[in-house]
Amino acid sequence: MAALQRPIRSRNKESPMTKGLLIIHTGDGKGKTTAALGMALRTAGHGLRVCFIQFIKGSWRYGELEAVKRFDDCIDLHVMGRGFTWKSESLEEDIRLAREGWALACQAIDSGQYHLVVLDEFTYLLHYRMLEIAPCLEFLASRRAEQHVLITGRYAPQALIEAADLVTEMRVVKHPLKSGIKAQKGIEF
Amino acid sequence: MAALQRPIRSRNKESPMTKGLLIIHTGDGKGKTTAALGMALRTAGHGLRVCFIQFIKGSWRYGELEAVKRFDDCIDLHVMGRGFTWKSESLEEDIRLAREGWALACQAIDSGQYHLVVLDEFTYLLHYRMLEIAPCLEFLASRRAEQHVLITGRYAPQALIEAADLVTEMRVVKHPLKSGIKAQKGIEF
Known about the structure:
2 copies of one chain form a homodimer.
Chain A: H1 2-5, E1 22-26, H2 32-45, E2 50-54, H3 62-69, E3 75-79, H4 91-111, E4 116-120, H5 123-127, H6 133-141, E5 148-152, H7 158-163, E6 166-174
Parallel strand pairs in A: 1-5, 1-6, 2-3, 2-4, 4-5
Function (chains A, B): Required for both de novo synthesis of the corrin ring for the assimilation of exogenous corrinoids. Participates in the adenosylation of a variety of incomplete and complete corrinoids.
Keywords (chains A, B): Transferase
EC number (chains A, B): 2.5.1.17
């Protein structure tokens, strides 16, 4: 949590009339998290700060982590959750971790320190009902007017899509893992 | 072109059995180039080299360029073309630039120096028939077995999709520019 208490190193120099967008990357295709990473790095390229919260531990590996390290003056990365899936044995533990992650997200959004807050793989928490959607949407709707929030993950609930400004579906047209080619460095991880 | 003659700073340490993928990001939605940028940075995070060729000059702005600068030991960025669109007044000039860009792409792919070669917005050259598709596909099919190539842009021709290993369509579900919100720093550029 220390990251949230650091002094602001770059301020949003945009007009106060700028509208913060709620952006969703969903669908069963690749590129949801990768495009979020690209957007985070692009934002950092402007010298603006990003809070990137991964809600599924282990979904990122060496390549992303090393890439983000070069931007540690602009990007604060937090890893929540406890494995590749939220469909684990202990529902209570999952709910506890989901609430903890959401509390961190709320704090980051409220802090006013970030141009962009990314909630990576967050949709699963809503889809698997680890969190109630209504209070989440209410919180997002009440955020500062210029705060951009980007949420990724499959199965984005309809209510989230309705609340969003920008929604992209990454749709699989063709996938090599289906033709038996193994996951590869830089491409899949 | 100097970049292509530099000594190799990081080699692909993967097994020679790795299959180089032909990857396409197409569709009318956002995230095609952004996901390519994310993949380039992830690859660079592994210490592997990337050649990123932009086929539409001016489509990148400050944020991406500054982000990529932090990886100038791993990512060689080339900007081809001459404006935001290839539908310009001078067809001859467009064809000349398209051929020049494709020649550079071929050289990068042939060089064996890059884990990943990105041809950003390349589909437009095929769609607007600035280049013939058959020799392009033939060249791509004959590349080194482990060479990954990522092509982005709308209107990916069917023959290119058929030749590809991994195709993702970025589909617009909702877009803020349609609701009158202006393009914003870090989000759109």
